[in-house]
Amino acid sequence: MSLKAKWKIGVVWILLFCSFFIPQSCNKKESYPEVKIFGHAGMGMDIGMSIFHDNSLEAIQLALALPTIDGVEVDVRMSADGTLWLYHENLLEAHTNGEGCIFETTDLELEQLRYKSLHREKLARLEQVWPLIGSRQLILDLKHWNACTEGYVDMSRFKEALYDIPEKYWDQITLDSSNPNWLEALSEDFSVVFSTVSVEEGVKQLQKVSQLKGLVLRSKDITAEQIVQLKTMDKDCYLFEMRSSKKQRAALQKQPFAILADDPRGALVIRD
Questions:
Q1: d(CA 34, CA 5)
Q2: d(CA 25, CA 85)
Q3: 178: closest CA among 139, 217, 151?
Q4: Quick one: which H or E segment has residue 21?
Q5: Could you tell me if 122 and 113 are in contact, meaning their C-beta atoms sit under 8 angstroms apart?
Q6: What does the buried/exposed string (b/e) look like for 211-235 if buried means 16 or more CB atoms within 10 Å of the residue's CB?
Q7: Measured between alpha carbons, how far is 6 from 9 in angstroms, rounded to an integer?
């Protein structure tokens, strides 16, 4: 057989290989059905992913309108009147037309405030979320540091405010706390996870407070292998701080219990 004939046969085999194997690899779809997806502060912390401000009722409604989303995560602070409000930053002036800390501000004053965003959304009370969630889950990120006094707020008062949550919703909420001193008391009646920057510190708390359900970490701070280790302890792992589609995909590939998605639409496309 001539060299030219051999070359033609080789080309045919290459074309056959490409026509069969490449489409197969391209059509292979990622799927992580076991991973729960929560909208981070509604539709995410980046306004570029949502037309509404994080922690606003509008952002939460938009996230919960996504058909296969598992729930939302929100940031919770207590007012001077002992009412739970949704707000992420330490100081009101950071994102609203108010000043100071929520802990020092009355409900009446908070009702007058609006975000410095395009739609000028109002601040929301936690109680306004209950009619929206249906059967979905809600993660409450407890913001218990008072930047105006540079100390933690009174845990007993905060806990009282949590007990004001209608009991019928208790099975649908998970409390996220970064204060080790609060974990045991909160775990008496609620599902609680510990927010930490260190897997090692997190494991210590899991061993210390056996009722803890798991850990919350930045995706970059934990490996897939460490997540497997947590699963062997029968503990959950929630990942956050993923501001791009690439990072959300990488987080899903680690197969944690859940991710707090800054682009929940994109995360659902990848997962489902």
A1: 52
A2: 48
A3: 217
A4: helix 3-27
A5: yes
A6: ebbbbbbebeebeeebbeebeeeeb
A7: 5
Query: Which CATH number covers residue 212?
Result: 3.20.20.190
* Per-residue confidence in pLDDT tens, the chain, 272 aa: 554 554 444 544 544 444 444 444 444 457 899 999 999 999 999 766 689 999 999 999 999 999 999 999 999 999 999 999 999 999 999 999 999 999 999 999 999 999 999 999 999 999 999 999 999 999 999 999 999 999 999 999 999 999 999 999 999 999 999 999 999 999 999 999 999 999 999 999 999 999 999 999 999 999 999 999 999 999 999 999 998 999 999 999 999 999 999 999 999 999 99
Residue ranges of alpha helices (H) inside 104-261 are 107-111, 130-133, 155-163, 183-186, 199-208, 224-232, 245-253
Encoded amino acid at 67, one letter: P
Q: With respect to residue 2, please indicate whether it lies within any of the assigned structural domains.
A: no
Beta-carbon contacts of residue 246 (< 8 Å; ≥ 6 apart): none
In a domain, 202, yes or no: yes
Residue 22: inside a domain, yes or no?
A: no
Query: Do the beta carbons of residue 41 and residue 108 sit within 8 Å?
Result: no
Helices 245-253 and 264-271 cross at an angle (nearest 10°) of 40
Q: Which two tokens stand for residue 193?
A: 């996870």
User: SS3 for 148-162, per residue?
Assistant: CCCEECCHHHHHHHH
Q: Given CA atoms 24, 242, 130, 157 in this order, what sign does their dihedral have?
A: positive
Q: What is the domain count for the chain? A: 1
Please give the residue range of the domain that contains residue 254: 35-271
- 248 occurs within a structural domain: yes
